[in-house]
Design brief:
Elements lengths: L1 H22 L6 H4 L8 H10 L4 E7 L4 H9 L4 H10 E7 L5 E3 L5 E3 H9 L6 E5 L5 E6 L5 H12 L8 H14 L1
Parallel strand pairs: 1-2
Antiparallel strand pairs: 1-5, 3-4, 5-6
Amino acid sequence: MLSRWLDVRIFLSIVLMLFMLSAGAVSRDSADHFFDQSLGDFSEELELAREEGKTGILIMFEMDECPFCHRMKDTVLNQSEVQEYYKQHFLIFTVDIEGDVAITDFQGEQVSQKDFAFKQFRVRATPVFGFFDLEGKLISRFTGATRDAQEFLWLGEYVVNGEYKKISFSRYKRQKRKEKRAR
């Protein structure tokens, strides 16, 4: 009887392990593995991004009470595949659109986080993902939460591959979905 119980437990453990492997994604804390630490000087962060050979800087404009921001952090930005791709190409920071904390913008000027978000980039809703080139110029912007991790990866590819210069992200997503179905 004991032997049979052990066999069932081993079998269930193997099934669980195979299920986790087939899911393919590993979940990690987005605060530790997605976002970079900043001292609040984006002009310095630009220099660091250049030194590290990054494509640019990604800023997630957020606020504490934003359910879509939390959803992104808990279901998309915590995925290891997303973290690895974005960390390879971007330095990544957050800005609280209601924050009074002083930061230094890309031009070296002191501003509050809320003035940086609202006055410089007209951020009124959250989350907003702002992609900046290595000169501090906003090159692409996505407002809202993505459907899933795959769509957020496509957003990163859209910017990294320069597709934002040619087509809208909506059209790019349709092309990627069509390619995926054709496989």
